[in-house]
Structure formats: structure tokens, C-alpha cells
What does this fold into?
Amino acid sequence: MLQNIGIPGLIIILVIALIIFGPSKLPAIGRAFGNTLKEFKRATNDLVKDENEDKDPSSDKNKVVAIKKVESKAEDK
It folds into this structure.
């Protein structure tokens, strides 16, 4: 759907946005849109990273080793 917009379509959309919101509001709207995209990208990267850690068996081994170290330190005290 968005593949058919092209340059003329983008120009028309920008002109309509300029008419509706005015030149003073467009930078704030663009900034908010950029922050939203950045936050969405960060959230999706975190989800993918968490999913990869769950599938990685070596991360489970690291957790077991860390738990054993904590338990041995607790027994020494």
C-alpha cells in the first residue's frame, strides 16, 4: 500500500500537514514521531534479544554457574 505513494504523494501529504498544523507545530510533531519510532525500535530489539537468550542453552549454563557461586559464598559466611 505505501509502496505506491512516491515523491509526489509525499509532497501532497507534507503540504496538507503544513496547512492543518501550521509551520510552528511541524517540528514538534516530527520530533514526537521520531521519539516514538526510536522507542518502538528499542522495544523490539529488547524482545528479540530476550527471545534469543531464552533459546541459547549456554545462557542457562551461565545462570547455573552464577547460582552455584552465590550459594557457595552464602555457605562460607
In short: Residues 45 and 65 are 27 Å apart (CA to CA). The two ends are 65 Å apart (CA to CA). The chain has a mean pLDDT of 79. Residues 26-55 form the longest helix (30 residues).
